């Protein structure tokens, strides 16, 4: 069965989209550690980061860098943190998280945001994305 992220790519499950090109998609995490927590994924469905082919791996890193730049311009923070875990969803994803405290990257404290806030934030980040 297609991963939940493949279903998002196919448009069967909605997301708060931040950026997209032919090979990659970025959208807000539905249960954010901090405001602006974004996931960057390849459109091909591969479980583990280091199993990606070299071109897709480097492409994902470059796409994530551009999304991080857009995030930095949108969300006040000390820096953008990056993490790859994948214990919950078996489809490669890079977590980009605006950091102000170490707790923001620990996946313990969560930030509640309304659908309206998430939609507005996704649009604001998207407006700063330079593809
Ligand atoms: P990991 O696999 O890296 O441990 O965590 C998966 C991440 O995906 C979590 O931060 C979780 O909140 C997020 N996530 C899981 N399902 C969905 C979904 O349907 N939509 C979005 N936007 N994020 C999701």
Considering the protein shown, what is the CATH homologous superfamily? HIT-like
What is the fold-level CATH name, i.e. the topology?
Answer: HIT family, subunit A
Overall pLDDT level: 97
Secondary-structure-based class equals: alpha+beta
Largest sheet: 5 strands, antiparallel
Question: Which molecules are bound in this entry?
Answer: guanosine-5'-monophosphate
- How many strand segments? 5
What's the CATH class, please? Alpha Beta
Which percent band covers the strand fraction?
A: 15-25%
| Order of secondary-structure elements | HEEEHEEH
Widest β-sheet, arrangement of strands: 1-2-3-5-4
Share of residues in helices: 25-40%
- Shape by Cα distribution: globular
How many helices does DSSP assign? 3
Number of domains: 1
Q: In the CATH classification, which architecture applies?
A: 2-Layer Sandwich
User: Regions with pLDDT < 50 over 5+ consecutive residues?
Assistant: none
Quaternary arrangement of the chains shown? single chain
């Amino acid at each position: 069965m297609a991963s939940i992220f493949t279903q998002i790519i196919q448009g069967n499950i909605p997301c708060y989209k931040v950026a997209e090109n032919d090979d990659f998609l970025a959208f807000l995490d539905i249960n954010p550690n901090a405001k602006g927590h974004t996931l960057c994924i390849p459109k091909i469905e591969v479980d583990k980061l280091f199993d990606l082919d070299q071109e897709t791996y480097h492409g994902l890193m470059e796409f994530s860098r551009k999304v991080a730049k857009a995030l930095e311009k949108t969300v006040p923070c000390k820096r953008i943190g990056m993490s790859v875990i994948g214990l919950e969803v078996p489809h490669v994803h890079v977590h980009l998280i605006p950091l102000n405290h170490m707790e923001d990257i620990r996946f313990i404290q969560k930030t509640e945001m309304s659908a309206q806030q998430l939609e507005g934030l996704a649009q604001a980040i998207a407006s700063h994305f330079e593809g």
